[in-house]
Each structure stands twice: as C-alpha cells, then as structure tokens.
Amino acid sequence: xxxxxxxxxxxxxxxxxRASSPAKPDPPASAELPLPPPISAGTACGPLGCMQYDSARxxxxxxxxxxxxxxxxxxxxxxxxxxxxxxxxxxxDELLPVLSGRASDLVVELxxxxxxxxxxxxxxxxxQAVVTAKQAPTNxxxxxxxxxxxxxLGVVPDMLRPxxxxxxxxRDAGDPIDSSLVLIVRLCETQxxxxxxxxxxxxxxxxxxxxxxxxxxxxxxxPSAEAARWTYAPALDAYVQGRFVAVDxxxxxxxxxxxxxRALPWYAHYDKTKLGAKTTIFRTGxxxxxxxxxxxxxx
Length: 299
Description:
Elements: E1 43-46, E2 50-53, H1 56-63, E3 70-75, H2 87-95, E4 103-111, H3 118-127, H4 129-132, H5 139-152, E5 156-160, H6 164-172, H7 176-200, E6 209-215, H8 233-239, E7 244-250, H9 259-262, H10 272-275, E8 279-285, E9 288-292
Parallel strand pairs: 3-6, 3-7, 4-5, 4-6, 7-9
Antiparallel strand pairs: 1-2, 2-8, 8-9
C-alpha cells in the first residue's frame, strides 16, 4: 500500500506510565478462549464477502469469530480538519468493550523512547512532521484515551518502546519515515510475541487475544513487495500458527477520491449512498477484514 497521511501510521513520540514486564520466549498457547459463534446477523451486500450489520460490534465479533491469538487493528487516521468521530474514538467507544475478558493486552502505535534520548526523539518528531501535520491534532490524545479505557476494562495497555539507539538510527536515516515504519514493525512484532508467550504460561490469560492498534499499513497479511517491510502481519501469523486476524477500520467521511484509496480492493465496491446507513464489512483476504463504519448522521 502506498504511504499517505491517512493510511500511514501515527508517527509520534508519547509518554506512558506502564513498564513492560520481561518474559522468556515459549511456544504460543494452543488453548482457545471460548468466543461467541458468528453473529450471523449480517446481510449480504455484494462482492468481497460484503456484509452489513446493524452495529459495529456485531461486525467486529464476526471478524473475530475464528478465535485469534493476535488481532492487528489498522485505521485510516483522522485527517486535519475532520469533523466526525475518528476510527480510534469509535474503536474505544464501540469495539473495545467487546474485548473485555477476551483480550489480555492492547499495544497502541505510539512510541515511548527512554528519557535519556529526548533530543533524538524531538528531532525524529520534527522529521515526521511531513506526515503528522496532515493528521488531526487530536489523534495522539485519542490513542492515550484508548489506553486508559482499555485499562478500565481489564485490558492492559502499552506503547512501543524503542531504545535510544533506535531513535538515533531513525534520526540519522536517509528516509526517516521509512525507517520509522520499519522500526514500528519490529517493535510490534517483538512485543506481540512476548505477550503471546506470557499469556501461554498464565492460567488467567492463556488463549486471550493480544491486540495491536495502529495505522493500516502494518497489519497487512498480503502486502505488496514495496510494503512488505512495513507489516508485522505475516510474521505474527506464522508465529501463532495462523491464529492472526487483521481488521481495518474506516470512517466513510475520510475516504478520498485519490490513487491511494482507489488502489484498495474494496474501494470500488463501497457506495456510501447505498451502504452508508449501516456498518459494512468486506473480506479482502484470508483472515483480513475491512470494517466501514456507518455515515455519521448530523445532530
């Protein structure tokens, strides 16, 4: 997928109060956490397994009905000037509660480097401004709110934790955006594997889901050759022996008529005037779903 301000990751540096717990690598758990069967309340609406639902919750639960150990949730970030609720806010309000008791951890795509490399982090942030300046200024705070909501629901939130060496490498890279994308993939993959391994040894968390939330580049199970280095999905899918699910969240008002959006396989099949009243899901590949929220009805 081509990089764009809306589909690329949220490239920011943030703070967090929770430290990661160390864990030794073990094979992933084979036990499954019982999940509800498919809601089967959807209505067929066209190609790519198009289904419509009365609620985003029902659609999300159908996407997770296979009982994954890792769920990669990708979003199209709210653009600057957005006037409707972002995918992050909708996930927090509507979908995150579904994961209470089913997910052990939520890793959000905000980077928290050590305090000792604040200068490098500031320089990286400045170089990322070419992307972040086009995103809504509320995006970062909404990720923080998402983490707080997850904790209240019993799902442990965390951020990505690059080292000072990582930040130096991004700062000095010829293409700092590409370097950031590759770093995010490595951190997500490492952190998710550690959490899956920890859950496998825990009576309380065995079989629970580890959720990664970020930009819609990183959770692609079938990336193009160009984008393969920007996604953690194939490696994590192999690690959990096929128990990975990718769900992209799309706010219809953010869909643009440009080359980046037109290249998406579901784009030509989504007609906002016909499908906008309900939540729509497309199945774009094995274990890969696109969830389009309903059009926002003005007050």
